[in-house]
Queue: 4 jobs
Job 1
Amino acid sequence: MIGCSEDTLKGQTSNPEAQSLMMDRLEGQSDAELLELSVAGEESAFLLLYERLKPSIFRYAFYMTNSKTAAEEVTQEVFISLLKDGERYRKARGDVAAFAFGIARNFVRRVQRRERVYQGLPSDEALEKLEGKQILELEVLPAQVIRTQEVAKMRAAIASLPDHYRQVIVLCDLCERSYAEAASRLGCAVGTIRSRLNRAHALLVQKLKQSKKPQTELSAAGTEQCLI
C-alpha cells in the first residue's frame, strides 16, 4: 500500500477560498470530465471527484470487508489508482463510478486474500431445499433486520458469504443499487442477480436461525430494488 494519508490524498492548498470557488465552477462538469482534469493535474477537479465518489466506494468496501480500516485502505488505493491510471478510462465501457467500482472490487479481493477466513457453508442441495421452503419470504431482506441490535451479527454473516453472494447483498441490500445497476457493475444478467440474491438471503436466514438469539421476523417487500 502506498503510504499516503487521507489529508495528503485530498490535497492541501494555501488558498482555501480560491479552491472552493474553483470547485464551484467545476460543479457542472461530469465525472468523466473531472477525471480527465484530475489526471492532467487539476487539484480542484480531483477534490470534487473525490467528494462525489468516496461515499459509495467506502460503503461498498466496508460491507465487503466488514472492516473500517480495510475500507479506508481500499478507498485510498482507488483514488491513487484513478490519478495514476485514469487515462485508461473509456466512456464506452461505462461511467466513472463503474470504473472506480471495478478498481475497488480488485482491491477488496486483495484484502480478502490477505485476511479472509471463510466459515463453512451448506451444500448446494441443502441450500436448494432451504430456498424451496422459504422462497416467498426471502425475495427481499427487509430493512429492520439490519437496523436493529443484530447489526454486528448480520454484518458477520454477510462477511462469511462466498464472494458472488456477498457482492449482490452489498450492492442491492446495503448500497441500495437496483438489480439493473448491480448487473451492470458485476457484468451479469439481471436474472442472475435475482437468483444470487435469493440464495444469499437463504444463507443469511439460516445463519441467523442457528444463532442463540431470536431472529428478527422477516416481512415481505417489493422486489425491484432492495432497500436496507
Job 2
Amino acid sequence: MLEAAVERVAPDMTAQHVSITLWSVLSLAATRAVPLPACYPSLWQAACGFEERSFNRVQFSMLFHAHLIHTELVGGVARGEVTFPPWIMHQAREAWMCQARDDVSVSSAVKEIVSILGYLGIRNEVERLTDDGYFSVDVYLPNDDVALEFDGPLHFIKICDGGEGAAPGGVGDASLASTRKTMSTELRDMFLARRHLRSSSCRTSSSPNWKVGRRRPSTLRRS
C-alpha cells in the first residue's frame, strides 16, 4: 500500500513532498522494519533534480537526517543503487548541524538532575555535542563516559487498545493505553547508541522525565 501510494504521487512531488517522503520511508524501515519501496532510489533521484534554493533549512535538515538513516541504519537493505544530491554533505549537513547546536533548550527536569549530580560531586556537561556534531546529548558525564537523555511527555505517544476485536494501536479506551517513544526519539536513541557504544563505550539512558523527577539524590548512584 505504501509503495503504491509513493509511486502514484512521485511524478508531482514538490521539494517539500520529497523531503517528507524520504524521511518517512526511511524512518519506517529503521524503526518498524518496513521494506523500502522499489521506487526508493527514484526518490533520491527526484531530490537530485531540484536546485538547492528549492529547499528551506527545515527540509535540508530532514534530508540530511534521511541520509544518516540510510548510511547508518538501513543502507544495506536499499533496493537498487542510490545517488545522493551533491549538496547533501554541504548545505543539508550544515543545516542539520546548526539545528543540533542551536535548537536546544534545557528542561527543568534536566536542571534538577544536573543539580543532583553536582550535589553528588559528579562532573557533568549539559547539551554536549557528539564528536561528529550531529547530535546533542542532554547530560554527559565525562569522568564515567556516560551519556544521559531525559525524555518528557513530548517524546512519547499513547497507543490505545480498543479492546477485543479492535485493531491494534487504534483509538479506544484510554484506560487501556500504553506508551511508546515517538519515531524521532527512537531514531535518536539508535544513533546515540551507535556513537557511544562504538566510539566511546558510553551508556545511553533514556527515561521519561516524570519518572526521573521522583528519584531522590540517594537513589542516584554512579555505576
Job 3
Amino acid sequence: MKKLILLLITLTTFTNVSYASFPVTETQQTDIVECDNTELPRNRESSPIWGVLSLTCAILSILLIPNFYAMFIAALLGVIFGAIGFNKKLKGLAITGFILGLPMTIISGVVVFIIWAFREA
C-alpha cells in the first residue's frame, strides 16, 4: 500500500512540476541558407582511422564470443578495415586488427557453418 501511495504521489508531482524548458510555439520559421564555399571534411593521409576501426572491430569480436553470428560480423569488419588500412601510411593498428580479426573470422565462420548445417528442420 505504501508503494502504491508513493507511486501516485510521484506521478502527481511529475505531472504538476514537469514542463518544457523552452517556449513551445505552433508555427516554426525555417530559413534556408545557401553557401557556395562549402568543403567536405577530409581525412588526413596520416590519420590511422582504418587501423583504429580494424582493431576496435577485432577486439569487439573477441568480446562477442558467446554470440557467434555477431562475432563473425565484427571479425569480418575487422579484417576488411585492416585490409583497407594496409594502403595507408600508418598501418600498425591495421596489421594488429587484421591479425586479431582473421582467426576470429575463421573460427566463428566454421561454428556458424556447423550451426547452420546441423540445425533441426
Job 4
Amino acid sequence: MLDGEHWLVARLSRPAFEIERLLTRLGAASGSFITAWNPRSEAASPVENATAAAALAAEILACGWRALPHRGVGDDPAWPAEEGWFLLDLDEATATNLAAAYGQNAYVRIERGRVARLVETRWLTGSDRSPI
C-alpha cells in the first residue's frame, strides 16, 4: 500500500510495524486487504477485473466504510499484482463476507499488536456463510 511516497508492506505471519503505525495515525484498530480481482484465484480479463473492482469500490462508498487503495503483490512473480482496498475497522465477519461476495478465497487482515494473517472465506472453508 502506498502511504504518500512510501510503500508499506505486509507479509503473512510477520510484524508490519509501518502498517501498525498507519493504523494508529488513522485511529483504526484493524485493516483488511480486499480485492475483487481474479475471483476464485482464476485469472480474469482486464475488463472483468475492472468491472468487479468498480462494483467493490461502489459498495465501499455506499456503505461509508473507510478504505485506502492498495496493490496486493504475492510471492509468486507469475501472478500479477491485484488492485484492491485496505478497509479500516471493518469487523472480521463483514470483511469475510465482503471478500466472499466478490469471489475471493481469502484476504489478509492486520490488527494492531498482531501479525498479518490470512482469513479464508467460504470458498475455501466450504461453510455456508452467505455473502452480504
